Amino acid sequence: MTSRPEKHSLTLHGHRTSVSLEPEFWQAFREIAKTRGLPLNALAAEVDAARGVDRGLASAIRVYVLDHYRRPSEG
What are residue 6's DSSP bridge partners? Predict the structure, then answer.
């Protein structure tokens, strides 16, 4: 069962923004950032830059996490 969303602040392109995600998504997003050797804000900026105007940042992060874990592992 998923927990209630938690709001955290991120800095994207020098501006602060708040994003609400379930703790499980925050944990997975942090793990992906660590694996990629990126600060969380840098990974969030990548997701932000790639999302369409019709998708909010929280939704874009959830889809990014889902896509990450759906990809076959390389190696």
Answer: 21
